[in-house]
Amino acid sequence: TSNQTPNSFSKFLPAVCFIWQIAMIILFGIFVRYNEESDTHWIEHKKTKRNLSDIENDFYYRYPSFQDVHVMIFVGFGFLMTFLKRYSFGAVGFNFLIAAFGIQWALLMQGWFHSFGTGKILIAVENLINADFCVGSCLIAYGAVLGKVSPVQLLVMTLCGVTLFAIDEFIILNAKDAGGSMSIHTFGACYGLAISWVLYRPDLNQSKRLLGSVYHSDVFAMIGTLFLWLFWPSFNSAICSHGDGQHRAAINTYLALASTVLTSVAISSLSKDKGKLDMVHIQNSTLAGGVAVGTAAEFMLMPYGALIVGFCCGIISTLGYVYVTPFLEKNLKIQDTCGINNLHCMPGIIGGIVGAISAAGATEYVYGSEGLAAMFPMVPRLQGGHQAAGLCVAIVFGIGGGIAVGTVLKLPIWGDPADDNCFDDEVYWELPEDEESHSVILEYNNHMRNKHQDV
Amino acid sequence: TSNQTPNSFSKFLPAVCFIWQIAMIILFGIFVRYNEESDTHWIEHKKTKRNLSDIENDFYYRYPSFQDVHVMIFVGFGFLMTFLKRYSFGAVGFNFLIAAFGIQWALLMQGWFHSFGTGKILIAVENLINADFCVGSCLIAYGAVLGKVSPVQLLVMTLCGVTLFAIDEFIILNAKDAGGSMSIHTFGACYGLAISWVLYRPDLNQSKRLLGSVYHSDVFAMIGTLFLWLFWPSFNSAICSHGDGQHRAAINTYLALASTVLTSVAISSLSKDKGKLDMVHIQNSTLAGGVAVGTAAEFMLMPYGALIVGFCCGIISTLGYVYVTPFLEKNLKIQDTCGINNLHCMPGIIGGIVGAISAAGATEYVYGSEGLAAMFPMVPRLQGGHQAAGLCVAIVFGIGGGIAVGTVLKLPIWGDPADDNCFDDEVYWELPEDEESHSVILEYNNHMRNKHQDV
Amino acid sequence: TSNQTPNSFSKFLPAVCFIWQIAMIILFGIFVRYNEESDTHWIEHKKTKRNLSDIENDFYYRYPSFQDVHVMIFVGFGFLMTFLKRYSFGAVGFNFLIAAFGIQWALLMQGWFHSFGTGKILIAVENLINADFCVGSCLIAYGAVLGKVSPVQLLVMTLCGVTLFAIDEFIILNAKDAGGSMSIHTFGACYGLAISWVLYRPDLNQSKRLLGSVYHSDVFAMIGTLFLWLFWPSFNSAICSHGDGQHRAAINTYLALASTVLTSVAISSLSKDKGKLDMVHIQNSTLAGGVAVGTAAEFMLMPYGALIVGFCCGIISTLGYVYVTPFLEKNLKIQDTCGINNLHCMPGIIGGIVGAISAAGATEYVYGSEGLAAMFPMVPRLQGGHQAAGLCVAIVFGIGGGIAVGTVLKLPIWGDPADDNCFDDEVYWELPEDEESHSVILEYNNHMRNKHQDV
């Protein structure tokens, strides 16, 4: 197995950061320009195009959603993973690093696929949102391997993940997937779980002492949870078509998430002694409704439909933490630090299925004839088929890509932590002195207590 | 008194969550649909209505404010209450639970009152804002009983609170109350204080050891304070009429809050030995200006008027923490954990009075004749009377409803904590092991110190 | 030197808060009114002006950016400075106080300069953004003296800083500076460093025990970092002209910041033993790209241009923390608690230079003839000269003003902490009891350990 001393790490990370960032600059220099709405030629453009005014620039109708999504990516995902007692720096810091790299690479990859032939990638605020989305899938994957890999491994995971995402997205182009249940959540979770499966550590219990939270780290994680929960309506509606589509997606997501909270609490309480609640469930499962309503958020799911989706996913996700995560670890040798299977994989697949069914069942009665044509590129039954196909492609890409990338990451060159050193910021971070003295005191106290007991 | 062992809690909470959520799904199925701006029929609607374009959908002119309000409800209120050393999980977690339930119930209750006769509740982003507002009043009430009630009691409080809010709001329909000084803050605070009065615990000092903060819990609470403070301009302007009304409400709130900070700091410093500052005041009283300017935010209060309102409320609110909270506990037997009397009740009443006076004194000279007609449904003097009546109705509903609900909550069936167990997450949450060992160390140290002193 | 006992503080702070706030009310009463878009006369105004509709009110095209900037000022700056182990209250609390005062004074100062002759200051959302910007410069200056001054000194710093800012801004009016690389960052940092130079404390190492972080204070600081990083695109675009300008500024900032993260991580890792990362760098240097792209954000910098700016500033800023900060302290006697030289001064100057060069090099080929005229008030070469002049003025104002204000603050009347009492919340805040008992335990443990070693 890959228990390198982290010394090989010392020059590797800076080298990767520098070289990749220089590559980004060169590629951006060759390929990336402003589009007509973010270029100074807009002043001429708006005259030619039915006399647009400045306030009709798409910036004003996408930017607030973009900023909400941006908060989710950096604060939401970052803080959600700070729950471990000694890996908060790594959680929020490496999340920051890989997202900052990933959004640049995503702008290129997605740009290339959407601008075949023209030669230039023309960017605007919608591209920024899509780049954030794309990176989101890699941050999900990070959740599965949190504390067990080096930052260089994470950067490689992100490079490959973004690439796979962009290809996957291009293939399933005809499947509607506004909130990315399939392309972001299912793909990202499958990708992360497959990598974690390849990188399986049989002796991980040597780090068991660090695999848990302390009181305040759980409160930090709630910052992540709440900002994800809050801004999820923006996430699912950010790239919907303007007007009723974006409006409806926000409403559906708001409702699905509200419903999820109640069933997550219920199952959490049922699963524990004396009906107590488990912070892990509150931090994670309460978000499952947002994942599952992603694909169909834009559809005429109806308010009660959104509530039902949330209801089911709160149950399934919490049960996942109670039963599926231990099962995966024992029987399938998948170690899933954050339980992304429960928060992203299962709810994402449900979301894909809900999307396929509700697309296949769409009627002119519900949508209106013009509304139906505007919503779906194909007739409902065909659309449903495409949705189902899209889900399968996402799963295949996730698992296949994850196994391939995991195999590369298994090479003993990446400076990942030893089995007894996982979930420990000490490996990659200068820690404040106080922490060390604090642990000295803990040890000292243990020593004294034992002595005391001897007396 | 109601010192149940929390065992009865173990099946009660899941049952309530499940049953109520299923009820929500059924009621939403019967009553709730999308309105014309969030339905696919928008495509036809916009043609018939003076050729609207997609970007004229109301979504774009309410949604940014909605998201700010949403942050306040979940992060703002939730983290503001994390200041207690051992009740941060309960603060942020139960806030999450009851808000997620409350917004669903509020959509129904408010919808029924606004759609008499049509049979269906048609929702859009404005309804989401109103639901958040409605729940806000229940979260205020939670502040009074923080740490002393069970989550089931909180859910009952929310169910009844939302119901009362919707009725109250319907009755005072002709009173303008954009930021809810009366309907949200005064009502919510009276409701919470009345419940706390009924649930008075004479032996609460048995939990005194937990009724305080630690250094980092105070910093967590500042997250709540700042997000409330920051987004309050959005809160007070979120449902104002478009154009100058919304614009002015944001400006007035911005100014009132700035002013409040300075007088809160001043009084806090005067109230303490050596002029030191008290975090409780900084966390809470700095927000009083936002409460008090709620009703009149939309009016031509003038920038200096907003500053004066903030000035006074910073003083009154901080003095409230110094003098009124202890007085209420000793003399009126009202135990108010978060001091909602000082942050919501007194400033809310002031806000109602400011609203009544400034409505009664509105003139064509200041507003312009068209502006005056657009702002108030009635002539100024009559409007002022309606405002004053609205304030009284909010107080009566709050106190009356609170006493009734409190009486129900006093029944010994709800699994609330014992007197020596209040303010303790241990009762309802699985706590991380480290915390326990931490307290072991504390005890051990105390023991050793005593021994050392004996020597 | 000025080692006053903080007793003089006890009545001074309340007096300043009260008197200044009353002065604000009087001055606002005389000078400040709503402008035509936030006044009820808007209803008439919009008819006369080509039949505007309510949703064309500028509120809707500035307010989302305003709220993002507001988060940066209060949460971003406030939490970024919470990294010290025992000064988190002071960081977030005094930041709150001085910002709340400063925005009021900024509305007046900036208003007077922009409304010469009309007699009244007419405010709208754009003024609120400018006031936040202005205060930003003073919060930057706070970073240099964090933990070493009293709140009264901070208020004086803010009063004078805002005044200088407004004059500076008026003088360099013809220089474009959308994100304030020059007027906010360079000026603010020079101002703070000059003050810190005058207030140099040779015996500051007496407080050395408190000049560092603990694990959770570093996580708190990341809240500040991330919200600053996230919303920086809004900061740099908030007051750009509508349409492509605002759009482009957001894109450029997004890219510059992404690039900065990678080079900051790289240099941080290179600078430390075993390639570990330093939280100070991650918290601060990752933001340098946003500072440096401020002036040119609106220009046709091109996406790769933004990446290059970010690339260089991540390197320079991190090297600054490693080499320049110690150098400044030893050789120039400038004690810079937060390292604002590295985050604001050097990147700000770079930003000014980038702005001057890219303005001077602007061509019709790139901008289009109409675009070029719309962007710059002067021909490119002249514009470049004005930009360079603007940078020089900002530096001169910062250093000159800082020396003058620092000299006043050196008077032994302000109640600043003693040399062995710096970076300690104890001086100005009532601290929770637990903290004290915690330090008792630490001392006790040290005592016991020594005893144990003797045995």
UniProtKB/TrEMBL annotation, chains A, B, C:
<keyword id="KW-0325">Glycoprotein</keyword>
<feature type="transmembrane region" description="Helical">
    <location>
        <begin position="349"/>
        <end position="368"/>
    </location>
</feature>
<feature type="transmembrane region" description="Helical">
    <location>
        <begin position="388"/>
        <end position="409"/>
    </location>
</feature>
<feature type="transmembrane region" description="Helical">
    <location>
        <begin position="128"/>
        <end position="147"/>
    </location>
</feature>
<keyword id="KW-1133">Transmembrane helix</keyword>
<dbReference type="Pfam" id="PF00909">
    <property type="entry name" value="Ammonium_transp"/>
</dbReference>
<feature type="transmembrane region" description="Helical">
    <location>
        <begin position="12"/>
        <end position="32"/>
    </location>
</feature>
<dbReference type="InterPro" id="IPR024041">
    <property type="entry name" value="NH4_transpt_AmtB-like_dom"/>
</dbReference>
<feature type="transmembrane region" description="Helical">
    <location>
        <begin position="179"/>
        <end position="200"/>
    </location>
</feature>
<dbReference type="InterPro" id="IPR002229">
    <property type="entry name" value="RhesusRHD"/>
</dbReference>
<keyword id="KW-0813">Transport</keyword>
<comment type="similarity">
    <text>Belongs to the ammonium transporter (TC 2.A.49) family. Rh subfamily.</text>
</comment>
<keyword id="KW-0924">Ammonia transport</keyword>
<keyword id="KW-1003">Cell membrane</keyword>
<dbReference type="GO" id="GO:0008519">
    <property type="term" value="F:ammonium channel activity"/>
</dbReference>
<feature type="transmembrane region" description="Helical">
    <location>
        <begin position="251"/>
        <end position="270"/>
    </location>
</feature>
<feature type="transmembrane region" description="Helical">
    <location>
        <begin position="282"/>
        <end position="301"/>
    </location>
</feature>
<feature type="transmembrane region" description="Helical">
    <location>
        <begin position="307"/>
        <end position="328"/>
    </location>
</feature>
<feature type="transmembrane region" description="Helical">
    <location>
        <begin position="212"/>
        <end position="231"/>
    </location>
</feature>
<keyword id="KW-0472">Membrane</keyword>
<comment type="function">
    <text>Functions as an ammonia transporter. May play a role in the elimination of ammonia in the gill.</text>
</comment>
<dbReference type="InterPro" id="IPR029020">
    <property type="entry name" value="Ammonium/urea_transptr"/>
</dbReference>
<dbReference type="GO" id="GO:0097272">
    <property type="term" value="P:ammonium homeostasis"/>
</dbReference>
<feature type="transmembrane region" description="Helical">
    <location>
        <begin position="154"/>
        <end position="173"/>
    </location>
</feature>
<feature type="domain" description="Ammonium transporter AmtB-like">
    <location>
        <begin position="54"/>
        <end position="411"/>
    </location>
</feature>
<feature type="transmembrane region" description="Helical">
    <location>
        <begin position="91"/>
        <end position="108"/>
    </location>
</feature>
<protein>
    <submittedName>
        <fullName>Rh family C glycoprotein</fullName>
    </submittedName>
</protein>
<keyword id="KW-0812">Transmembrane</keyword>
<dbReference type="GO" id="GO:0005886">
    <property type="term" value="C:plasma membrane"/>
</dbReference>
<feature type="transmembrane region" description="Helical">
    <location>
        <begin position="66"/>
        <end position="84"/>
    </location>
</feature>
